[in-house]
Design brief:
By secondary structure, the chain is α+β, with helices and mostly antiparallel strands. The protein has 4 domains: 79 residues, Alpha-Beta Plaits (2-Layer Sandwich), CATH 3.30.70; 93 residues; 70 residues, no CATH class; 59 residues, SH3 type barrels. It contains 8 helices and 12 strands. The strands form 3 sheets. The protein has a 5-stranded mixed sheet with strand order 3-4-2-1-5. Strand 3 and strand 4 form a beta hairpin. Helix 3 packs antiparallel against helix 4. The radius of gyration is 30 Å and the shape is flat. The termini are far apart. The mean pLDDT is 91. This is DUF3560 domain-containing protein. Pfam families: DUF3560.
Length: 325
């Protein structure tokens, strides 16, 4: 039986060619236990790698699945496309998928709420069937068994009602969280942190391409420049990341222009200034390249550091408002 593990930026990594009862499910379940990331996507009826869209292929997970399937007697072909989509297009696609997810979760929350309402009604009817005024069970009376069955039905109905409301609350919370995911992803602090993270990863990959010394004496390691297929993987990864860095820098520039964030740098802040972070004002001790050192508000002589992107307001030391404060 022929199978294909295919990766593209648009679809991510998927396993094609499987069928019900062909034995692939059992093999892939073991692969998932061993290396993780693989998941059965019920909506597509396929195995795939989680969070693989618009990412470089996870070669370790792909090769682990291919080897396990081949060992089980399957013929497995690999079709790996390392080309990436423009970052703006990928983000637009991600936002559209998130909207679809929100709609699906809203519909699920509505169904759960309707189920909870029906369970409430069933519980009310079950309790109304009980004898009035909490009449106790009459031991040995002909009504004993009927009374006990009514109590059990009322108890079970109440339990189903409580569980239905719990499920409805969870569904509503998930829908509400999903509704704000895109906003969180584009918050100014998150965008700035993402740029810093990507730039650090770029520097790390550049060191892999260049080679050189790593560590400190006497524990110095000389790394050779990456070569062959591994070098091509690193280059593809860096090309995609460079596009993403530029995209998010454009987003941040627009946020600064719109007044959503200050966009402060070392040139804008000086010793003695005041900065506002998470609703509190702090005195600046020193302006660094990436952070600002500020005085502790609680322990004299102790300082802390704050990234520039987390500063929500800034006052110069010579500002009359600040002097008055």
């Amino acid at each position: 039986m022929s199978l294909t593990i295919r990766h593209t930026a648009e679809t991510g990594t998927l396993l094609d060619g499987t069928g019900r009862g062909d034995g692939t499910y059992e093999v892939m379940t073991e692969v998932r236990k061993r290396v993780g990331h693989w998941k059965w996507f019920r909506s597509m009826g396929q195995w795939g790698l989680v969070s693989s869209r618009d990412r470089q292929p996870k070669d370790y997970c792909i090769n682990a699945a291919a080897e396990a399937l081949r060992a089980a007697g399957f013929t497995v072909a690999l079709e790996i496309d390392r080309a990436h989509r423009p970052a703006a297009e990928a983000e637009a696609d991600r936002a559209a998928r998130q909207e679809d997810r929100v709609d699906a979760l809203d519909a699920k929350a509505d169904r759960r709420a309707a189920k909870a309402t029906a369970a409430d009604e069933a519980s009310r009817r079950a309790h109304e069937s009980l004898p009035e005024w909490g009449e106790p069970v009459k031991i040995g009376h002909h009504s004993e068994n009927r009374h006990r069955r009514s109590l059990e039905r009322a108890w079970n109905a109440m339990g189903r009602s409580v569980e239905a409301h719990r499920d409805a609350d969870v569904a509503a919370q998930r829908a509400e969280a999903a509704r704000h995911t895109t906003d969180y992803r584009h918050s100014p602090v998150t965008v700035a942190n993402r740029i810093d993270k990507f730039e650090a990863e770029q520097r790390g990959d550049q060191r892999i391409l260049d080679g050189g010394e790593r560590g400190r004496p006497p524990y110095v390691t000389i790394d050779k420049p990456a070569s062959g297929a591994y070098r091509e993987k690193v280059i593809a990864r860096m090309a995609q990341r460079a596009d993403e860095i530029q995209h998010w820098k454009d987003v941040r520039a627009a946020q600064i222009a719109d007044g959503l964030t200050l966009g402060l740098t070392k040139a804008d802040v000086a010793k003695g200034d005041a900065v506002k972070v998470r609703g509190e004002w702090y005195r600046v001790v020193r302006a660094n390249a990436k952070t600002v050192t500020v005085e502790s508000r609680f322990i004299a002589g102790h300082n802390g550091t704050v990234p520039y992107q987390e500063i929500s307001a800034h006052r110069k030391a010579a500002d009359p408002t600040e002097a008055k404060a």
